[in-house]
Every structure is written in structure tokens, then in C-alpha cells.
Amino acid sequence: MEKKVGVYICKDCGIGDALNIEQLEEVAKEYGPAVCKVHDFLCSQEGVQVIKDDIQNEGINTIVIAACSMRVNTDVFAFDPQKYVTERVNLREHVVWCQPPNDENTQRMAEDYLRMGITRAQKADPPEPKRGDLEKTILVVGGGVAGLSAALEAAKAGYRAIVVEKAEELGGRVREMKKILPSKPPYEQLESPDIDEKIKAVKDHPNITVYTNSQVVTIEGEPGMYDVTICSNENITRKEIDINEEVKSGGPARFPLPECSSPETVKAGAIVFTIGWKPYDATKLEEPFGYGKFKNVVTNWELEKMASNGGIKRPSDGATPNTVVFIQCAGQRDENHLPYCSSVCCLTSLKQAKYIREANQDAGAFIIYKDMRTPGLYENFYKSMQDDEGVFLIKGEIQGLEENADGTIQVKVENKLLNEVNVINADMVVLATGMVTNMVPEGREPKELTRDQEYIGDIVQKQTEDGVVEELVPYPIALNLKYRQGPEMPYLKYGFPDSHFICFPYETRRTGIYAAGAARHPMDAAQAAMDGAGAALKAIQCIERSSEGYAVHPRSWDQTFPVFRLESCTQCRRCTVECPFGVLDEDEKATPQEHPYRCRRCGTCMGACPQRIINFSDYSIDMISSMLQEMKVPDESELFPYIVGFICENDAYPAFDMAGINRLQLPPNFRLIRLRCLGGMNLVWVSDVLSKGADGVILIGCKFGDDYQCHFVKGSQMANERLGKVQETLSRLMLEAERVKMVQLAINEYDQLPQILNEFAEQVKEIGANPYKGF
Amino acid sequence: MPEERVLSPDINFIRDLKKVGGETVKKCYQCATCAVVCPMSPDERPFPRKEMIMAQLGQKESLLADPDIWYCHNCNDCSKYCPRGARPGDVLSALRAKFINENAIPSFMAKIVRNPILALAIPFVILFLVLAAEGHLHIPEGKIVYSHFFSIHTIENLFGALVALAGLSYIISLVRFWGKLKSLNGTDYKMKFGDAFVETIVEFLKHTKFTKCEANADRKNGHMLVFYGFVGLFITTCWITFYYYVMKIHSPISLADPMKWWANLSALSLLVGILIIIGNHMKDKGINTKTSSFDWTFIIMILLLAITGLLTELIRLAGIRQLAYPMYFVHLMFVFYTIVYFPYSKLAHMGYRTLAITYYKMVGKDVM
After folding, report:
1. Nearest-CB residue to A418 (from B14, B50, B58)
2. Residue A393 at interface with chain B, using a CB cutoff of 8 Å
3. What is the pTM for the complete model shown?
């Protein structure tokens, strides 16, 4: 396509007062645009009309708007991205609002940005979306309350759903519950779970197929085109492989996927993952809570089942208990057991206290808590239970339990509020044990599953050419994905699937697979039902957006796809390993195999590739390198140091906008280049910058670690790791490593930018000018 | 090592407490705002949070020996600031009412007092029988002289005996309370009983502690007028006895007599005081202080006592015989009520609070 560039410079918002606009026009004209216009008020109807007329009359297809931030006026400067390339040069927030007006350096900065912007636009092409007729069935793995809701909601929205449940019956754990928490005002009455109606509705729905007593044995493919193999329990065999044996032979130490003697294959477009939870293993709580040692110590789950099967009876003699002690956080919020709060056990104990009180008017239910946590409107239920004269809430720590001769349990509590020791002789003690996601296999402890490893599995020692290396071998659990990175989803902590819990619920690190219910995080039945519905909507969105060729999340407007120039691939595996979303598989020779619909377009693969063979139509290695070439690095006497910043467009870019909006003065030494994600940072650009004669490079990306803020989970972390290798590049150029720095910045930390930039400029100043300057 | 307490909550105690004005007791979630805003609460083991916790746990024995519930002067700042609407001030009030009921001897009397109709029916029957026995079941002729109706000696013997019985009962109750205070809270004294007691009485006369409850300052005036009204009427009784036996002056006494001035002033003080208290209760209702039926019954009885007393005098002066004698009869019913039910009524707080504050001073916990 022939590029016809139009450059439009706006003078409003102080731009015209602070910059020499004629000079800017001259700079633009160096690039031979078809038109170059200055307007007093470009975002006005009249201003936009100027651009539209040029598109119409002059055939402009590449629009460079030198005005405000790309994050504002997106509705005004909206030109069909499939036909036109639009580039926004941020003269307002990033230049005139944070630099002194009519200053030589301010003008210099604006001109650099204009050059880079025009270059960027020239190097970009409109995307060629992959539109496809995709499979629209939604596979629901797990038929508990969350899964049933997901299937029902999907079916109601007109999509086919397939439910695969491992147990004989649908309904999961909620089916075994006597009551669930109140769902409507005044939140005082417990409700019977409507799970039986839900099961019936699912079974009767013409668009839902149910497989009970079955499991998923393989999933291959990508959103819109998954091939799923379902197998009934009795036909599944799991061949045990002796890992040690494999290590000796040096072969791949993988667990085999389960094998099925009579598989059934179905197609699916997206997957809802609702495999539920299990109670924490109470046998580990013999000390200090006496579980297993004393007959009358039971778990909350055991009590619930007792309540729904004929009533609560004391295990030792079958009598109706008169005094029941509930011990909250039994093993929870405890580094030795479950380090987290399950968020529902306080409510469960209040619910069960109601069972006790309703069965016996004079019964006393003691709840010994660390903190009562009753989120949301359940506070009202807590209040109503607190008001019951037979419910005794004690903030305290258990000192110990002893069994009396008559089978009652003497519970000693350190009452934190009265500063005394309370002794309670209880007929029964109920341990409020927590919820463990079914992502955690039997025999594994959630506390071991910290963020050090991405997948649940075993570390094995593997013989390679470089000697013995430790490698994580992931377990197959419920999905059995045939993905290069592993058969299940990466987890964040304690086995819960990795996703940004608050910003992006249901998202996982496998595009097209949405986690919901207590497998995702501990929650109660009502929340799980809602969660299932939410995940179903995400699944539908995934299928629909994918079939139009859009990225699903978070770049939901993006129709580009990474393009692999495979003839230059050296099979180094960096892209297949580093992709945070497991997009790429490998063939036998380790050449990457694309699965475009799994892709989120972050460009991490582009940043990883040492051969620079991965690019997008509007985002490429060459594009950024060309932009770097167009910067005019001034002489040391004019502006020193001269530093290039690669910034993440999700947090760092708007942070700079905020700095501008707040008129923070920033040093004139920096030229910022936005990246989709810092994960796309290719090291070749560092050598480009330095060989061009700039004095330093700063990378500003999102926070990583446990509470990461990266929209692409691992992008900024990857950039940081790559930076560890930049030393090599720098020493080849005979340059100091301190010229390159990585900074983690959250959007609300914009006020720290002046300090960050000044300090780095100072640091580079001390190192001295880049010896390549002027070459 | 913290002390040990075996918890076997008295659920019925909690239910009762809810019935006598402490229905909000279970709402407390122990934030301690109450203990912080309370101007009376000591730094060590502050109240009323701990009383709220113990009440929620049904710890009847500890609560009924707790001097802190008496240290509270019911300004109800705590209830005003309580974020949970647990109304600690009202719960303490209820605890005091409960305590008075539980601690007084004999306990069947407490049941009678809880039923105002029955409580008034008893003096009616007794006074009626006395009149019948003296053959005075008719309105006497001639000038209105109340001793023609009930003879001075009858009144003296009857009410003398009643005061003695009620006083004995009250003293036993106070001794019981003192015993509980000592046994449950220790005897690590820093001050002698006598000194502490005198200091307490002086404070009472000045209403020093009441003044500290700033949030509810108007209550002080009402309380003071009622308090001094009773003191004045007590002095009147002594004065008139002195006139009768020493000066041989018999009633009715001239309005110009200083004793009459004193008596009328005391009666007015009582009436005005109780009206102020009623006014406060009406004003505060629902917003600040809730008033339990225990309190209302008592307030109404005092009001009627004062009104019937003054009417007895006014009607006599107006010379309406047909009304004067029945009014006198009714007034005596309320006098009977006030004296006999003293250990079971709100008035009993006088001795308990005196002892509690004396004890506070002795163990060095007083915040003054």
C-alpha cells in the first residue's frame, strides 16, 4: 500500500505558545508528507473535518496528529484502524506541560518526538485481521454450582455448553450442604440451596450436554478451535513414570497425559474452569486442635454433612450437643498450614451456629475468632447472629484442648479482650478449616506452592549437555492441555490460577480459559454461582471477539497478529519459553508453532527473539530502530546527557501524562518511546541507542513480583531479566553497565518521576558522555 | 499469667437483661469507642466495654459484683457514639436494675415491685384495713385535720415499722454487695473506709461526678432538686416530730411557720426536679437515653408522690373536706410505696453507688 502521510499540528492547549510551530512544520516537511497542516484547535469539529477532507480528497492514509496524549480524544481522532494508520505525537502532556516554554531544549524535544512519530507512522501498516468461523461451544470443566451457572448462562445466551463432571452426580459440594447463606434483605434467614433445580435445568436444557463420571483427558488447539477429549472414569489409565529413571536416560521427564481406551472427542471455542475446592486436610491439625485424637472434634465440612444427613449429633454418643465451640482459622492464616484467609469460614460457622441454636433453644455456640470476616452484605447476617443470646463470640487464641472423662472437650482460650483465660467445656468442637483449590493435587500442600514456580509439579534433575539441571515437571490435573509450557494453567500462589484478582477476574494465563468458583479463590455458593456466570460471559466474549480477529484481553481493540519470519529462526526457544500465555508450541526441531487466537499481542516474543524475526504490522523491531535513527542527538555542549526511555504504555505512559497534567517539571534530557508492554523490549534497541550516541537508556515498566501490576503478567519481569544480559552488549561496545536502568512504576506514582529522571540523569552525567557521540 | 474463668453462660440472664432495657447488649462488637469517650472510665481496666463483653457472655456473677456499673452516671455519651447502636449506657442501666432486683432481700418483694398495680394495691388494702380498725371509714366532720382521719400514733407506728423493715432489708443488701465487691475485686486498699466514705458523701452533696458527665448536663439539675427535695422532706419529718413531742405544736401548722416554708420548698424542689427529669427523658427519647420501664415506673411514682402531697395541703387550705381526706389517703399510699419498695426501686442506687465509689476510692481507682 502506498503511504500517503498527513501531518497535523495543533496549537491549542499551550502548544502554540510554547513551541516554534513554523520550525516544527519544517521538520515535518523533511519527511515529505502529502499534507502538513497547523490548526488552532484540532480536536474541534472543524479541525477533525480538515483531516477527514484530506482523507477524502488527498487520499491520506497515514495520519500523524501532533497534539495531545494518545489516551485522550480517542473518540474524536477515530479513523478506521483497518484502513488508516493513526499516530499521536504527544506534544502536550509529554512536552509543553512539563517543560519550560520557548526553550531551546523544549523545541528540540518536540522536534524529536515529531520525527519519531512520523517515522513510526511510516513504518506501520493497518492490520490484516484473521477472521474465522470459530467453534462457539463452551466447555465447562467441573459441574458444581459455578460450572452449572456457567453452562446455564451460556445456554441462555444461545451458546451450546458441554459440562464435564468427574463425580457421579452434578452439583458439587453445594449439593451436600444443608443451607446456604442468606441472599436477600434482611440477610437473616438461611436459604436452602437451589442446586437441585439448577441440576435439573442443566440436564433439561437442549443446548447443554452433560458428561458425568468423566474427565477431560486432552485439550488441543486454541480459542475457537479446541479439540477436547472426554473419557469416562473407568476408561482412564494413568501410566506411572519413574522420574528418576527418565533422568538417567536423559530423555524428557514428563508425566504422561492420562490415556483413554474409549475417548469421545468434542470441539469447543472457550473453556470455563470450575473444578472447585476441597477442605484443608484436618489430619494435619491433630496438634493443637485434637482432630483425630478426640472423637468430638470435627471439621466444619463434617458438621455440614451431619446437618444435611439427619442432624447434628455428638460423634461419641449421638447426643444432640448443648455446647459447641467453633474454632476459627483452624490451620488458616497460619504459615504452617494455609497461609491465607478463606473468607467464608466465619460465615460458615455463623451458619452452623444457627443450626445448633435452632435445634436447641438453650444451646450455646461459641465462636473463637482471630477476626470475624464477613464480607459485603453478609455483615447483616453476622449482626443478626451476634444478636442471638446463645451465640458467644470470643476474640481469642486457643491454648489447648483436652478430653474430659465424659467425652466432652475442655477448650482453653486466651480471651484477648478480657485478658483472661476462658475454659469452656464443650460437647463438640468444630474446626473451621479452610478451602483449598482443586488445582492442588492430593498430597501437595498449598503452602509449598509459592510464586517461585509457575506450575504445580515436581522439580526433577535432568541430564543435559550442560550437565545436570533442575527442571520443573508440571502435573496434569484437570485440563491436560497439549501446550508446550505445561498441561495446566500457571498459578499465582497456593495453587490458585494466576490472574489479576481485582482488575481481571476470570482471566487466566491461558487465553480462552476462564477460571471461576472456589477453584479461583475461596468463596461461598452464591458468589460461585455469580462467578460462573461471569466466566461464561468472558468465554462468550472470547469466542466472538476472536472470530472477528480482535485480541480478547487486554488489548481488545487490537487486530494485529505477530508475524514470524520462520526461515531465520534458530530454534533457540526463547519465544516459546517466555510467552506469558503459552501461545507457542514447538515442533520436533523446536521451531515455534503459532496459535494466533491464544495471543494477547503484548509483543513479549518480539522482545525475546534475538533474530528479530517476530513483528507486528504496526509494531516492529525495525520500526523502533528506525525511530531511534531519526532522533537528533545533540552535541554534548548543547544537551547532556541525552537519554532514551522505553516506557510501558499501560502505566508509565499515563504516569507521564499525569505528570504533565499536574505541570510537574521534568528534565529535558529524555526521549520516551512507548511499548505495548516492557516485555517487548528487544535488546537490539539498547545497542541502537548507544551506538547512535545517546548517553543512557531507562526502562520504565510495571511492578512485578507477588503483587504484579503488569497487564501481561510477566512483561516487565522479562524485560528486567533480559537487562541482566545487556552487560554483554555493553561490554562489546566498551560501555558502562550503569548507563542502562530499569524502573518499576505504578500509575499513581507519577509524582516520583521528576526525582527518578533527575537522579538517573545525574548518574549518567557522572559516567560521562557516550564516546560514540557524533560518529 | 491472666486469671482463668470457666465460661458457662447464663442464657436466661441475657434474655432478662434484654427485657429490662438492655436489648442492644448483643450488638456490641468491641471497638471500645464507649470506653474511650466515657469521662468516668479509669485507665486501668476501663468500662463499659468489658461489661458489654461479660454481659454478652452471660457472666452474671461477675457483673453483679462489678463496681463499675455503679460508677457510671448514665450520661450516655457512649450510646451516642457507639457505631453499632449497642447503647452501652442503657445496658449498664439495665444491669443496675437487674442488680437491684437480684441483690435485695427478700426476693419476692422484687416481683411485687415489678407489677405497679399490685405494688399500689398492697398499701391501699393495708391503709384501708387500718382505717377500718380505727373506725374512720368516713369523712370526718369539722375543720380539716388529718390526724382526725389517721391518728398520729397510727401513722408513726405503721410507718416507723415500715421504715425499720425496709431499712433492715436495705442494709442487708448493701452488706451483701460490699462482700461481693471485696471477694471479687480484692482488698488492696490505698485509703481507709471512713475517709473514702466521707469524700464520697461530700462529692454527692456537690454532685461533682454528675458534673463530669458533660454530655447530659441538664440531668444534674433535675437530679439535684430531687435529691435535695428528699433530704428536705426528711428534715421536715424530723422537724415536725420535734414540734409534736418537744414544742407540743400540733398540725395543721401555720403557713407562716418556718417549718412550713421549709416543707413547701422541699416539696416544690421534688416536684420541679422530677418534672425536669421527665422533660429530659421526653426530650432525649430515642436519640440519647432510652428509659426502661423500671425507670419510668419510679419517675411516675415520685411525681405522684409530690403532686398528691402538695394537693393534700392545697385542698386542705381550700377547705374541701370530701376531697382532702381521700387525697391524703392516696398520698399515704405513695409514701408507703416510696419507703417500702426503696430497696427494690431506683432509689436503692443511692447506697450502692456510694459504696461502689467508696470502694473505688479505697483501691485507688477513682478518676476524680
Report:
1. B50
2. yes
3. 0.89
